[in-house]
Design a protein that fits this description.
There is one protein chain. With 622 residues, the protein is an alpha/beta fold. The chain folds into four domains: 1-60; 62-220, 2-Layer Sandwich (Beta-Lactamase); 314-466, Histidine kinase-like ATPase, C-terminal domain (Heat Shock Protein 90, 2-Layer Sandwich); 496-614, Response regulator (Rossmann fold). The protein contains 14 helices and 17 strands. The strands form four sheets. It has a five-stranded antiparallel sheet. Helix 10 (504-516) links the parallel strand 13 and strand 14 (520-524). Helix 5 crosses helix 10 (504-516), helix 8 (358-375) packs antiparallel against helix 9 and helix 11 packs parallel to helix 12 (553-561). The chain is elongated, with a radius of gyration of 49 Å.
Amino acid sequence: MSNVEDDEDKLLRSVGLQNAQSILRVRQRSEQELRDTKEALEEETRVLDILNKTGAILASKLDLQALVQAVTDAATEVTGAQFGAFFYTVKAAAGGMLTLYTLSGAPREAFDKFGHPRATALFGPTFHGQGVIRIADVAKDPRYGQMAPHHGMPAGHLPVCSYLAAPVALRSGEVIGGLFFGHPDCDVFTERTERIVVGIAAQAAIAIDNARLYEEAKRAADERKLLLEAERAARSELERVSLIKDEFLATLSHELRTPLNAVLGWSEMLLGRSTPDAEIRRGLETIARNARAQAQLIEDLLDMNRIVSGKIRLDVQRVDLSAIVEAAVDSVRPSAQARSIKLRVTLDPLVVPVFGDPHRLQQVVWNLLSNAVKFTPKGGRIDVLLARVNSHVDITVVDSGIGIAPDFLPHIFERFRQADSSTTREHGGLGLGLSIVKQLVELHGGTVRADSAGADGGSTFVVSLPLRAVREDTGQHPTTRTRVAGQPAIQLAGITVLVVDDEEDARELVKWVLVEAKAEVITASSAAEALELLATSRPDVIVSDIGMPDRDGYQFMRAVRERTLAEGGKTPAIALTAFARSEDRTRALLSGYQVHMAKPIEPQELVVTIGSLTGRTGLPNQ
């Protein structure tokens, strides 16, 4: 029994030991599996963490260089490669494509000497977008030896056994580069690694596409900004040039008007005195006529500049066109009589007033009549007709002059155009008068047309103005000019006038005009001298030039207006100046002048203006 029991005991112990060993082996396998699972989970977590970080970076980065570096770093880390590279193409600023690259896991110096990979048998499929290439041992791959010119790994290259490459293609299908990874150990990259790299490449393509769109939008915005800046600079330069031009014209006007003022003023004063010798009278009339022509040339230049720059303004009011036509005819009658030209005027009594600027409308008629006189030979005829035609009023000027050639007729109203611009031309002028007529008539909502039978067939000009409608471009006329022809002479006895002008000729002319009207005159050659005189004298009116050295007329008048009433601070003042632009008039009025008058002066007009400022409007001895 004992032997049997011993055998059973041995058997039980053997079975128990085997069971224990089996249990131990199972436990050991379970623990290993747990460790393997844990390591796999940790690796998966690490990869997911890298991918999440990479996704966040790709979503937030718009800078292309930073983006491709982030992709290279993340993919190199995820694959376990020893080094990785991202070769990609960008548009060059000068045109064409440029290949760039980023590295991870190796210094840039390790690859600089090898240059960029070419589309060889090994690299070509990646650059052509033909899919992923994964090689366990690159030296054993048949494509490896075909890598000219080295036919293998170039000397000095980092050791590579495992190789993985994936193309990076945009949504459009365009391949912009490739991701390349290497490791000195063989068979490092797995199918799983390959799938991860493909996913990263797809994410990278989307991010790069977005970055490119952003760069293009930014570049377009920068270009628009540069264009706007260039446009602003060009506009600023144009404004500067326009200002210089305006200032030049103002200076030109001043310099031309100043001597004309003395010439025209003195000739008219001499003509207005007792009848001189016939030869002297003819000479004075010639001086006066040419001075007026010169003054009109200046006005034409300034008017055309105002029209072109849009600065001309109409002082719209009810206008009696009959009076306008008669005044214009009166102004050209002496020139017509000098050439024995017969002037005939026909005024329709049914014509009613129109709305317009009386000064500008008179300028229109005067320009047409002056042209007719200029181009009509001695002994010719000019007819002026004012008539109502339906809802318009027509002003017609017909002359028996040299006519207009058919080929020039379509250009008759163009600026600076003249039928004869040769050096032997018979008639002077700038070719601005008719252009100014057209512009002024159109500002009034009207039309002007010309007709001619050709050479020596005379000319007909018709201005048609609407009875009511007018473009109400309201504002002030640049100068205060009131026609006083036919007004009774005004005496200024008992009135003291302070005349301020640095030009002696101009100063003496104004003095003589006023002395002839019985005024008492005090003169000053500068603003400083005038202010000293005001300390001891109380003139009734001040007549001052604007352009003077040291202190100009604007500064002088502001100094006067700073004085008290007892010190003469409220003395009425006239700016008598060769600065005749609308802005000059506005500046004069803002400086304290009551009236702005442009040189050259009409003596009677100056006397009438002083009379109106002092309440003298009657006949002599009143």
